[in-house]
Automatic annotation (TrEMBL):
This is RidA family protein. InterPro entries: Endoribo_LPSP/chorism_mut-like, RutC-like_sf. Transmembrane segments: none annotated. It comes from the Bacteria. Residues 4-126 form the Endoribonuclease L-PSP/chorismate mutase-like domain. The lineage of its organism: Bacteria, Bacillati, Bacillota, Bacilli, Bacillales. It comes from Fredinandcohnia salidurans.
Length: 147
């Protein structure tokens, strides 16, 4: 089953790709590596540990992951052209004493593995606490190997 069919089977739909809001591009491909600009959880805003729970953050990271998948599809035409998710960097909008960034990030990681399988979908990752654009709970940056 290809990744787009798997998304549908899981009940997800890719959002329409949004344009950039500054002087940058949404992705850059060099050779077989695709570098994505940040993908936000547009529907979930606020700080983890204050207004947003870990469970809501987990879902927010899935939202950001779907935004990223939309960019990938736009860049290469079909998600089946993804050979490997290489690196995912998560910026978690959180209170100063919040320590569960990794639990929030699991939402995106779980989605990627569910869509692509272990071999393609498992990835290196880092999650850090920060302040995000538009108050988004989660922002993801990615490096993807494509055909």
């Amino acid at each position: 089953m290809n990744p787009e069919q798997r998304l549908q089977e899981l009940g997800y739909e890719l959002p329409e790709m949004r344009g950039s809001v500054g002087n940058y591009v949404l992705y850059v491909q060099t050779g077989n590596l695709l570098f994505l600009s940040g993908s936000l959880s547009y529907d979930t805003v606020g700080k983890l540990g204050d207004e947003v729970s870990v469970e809501q953050g987990y879902e927010a990271s899935k939202q950001a992951a779907l935004e990223a998948l939309s960019k990938i599809k736009n860049a290469v035409g079909d998600l089946s052209r993804v050979k490997k998710l290489v690196k995912v960097l998560a910026f978690i909008n959180c209170a100063l004493d919040f320590k569960d960034q990794a639990k929030v990030m699991n939402g995106a990681s779980d989605l990627f593995v569910s869509v692509f399988g272990e071999e393609v979908g498992s990835h290196a990752r880092t999650s850090i606490g920060t302040i995000n654009p538009r108050g988004a709970a989660v922002e993801l940056e990615m490096v993807v190997e494509v055909e």
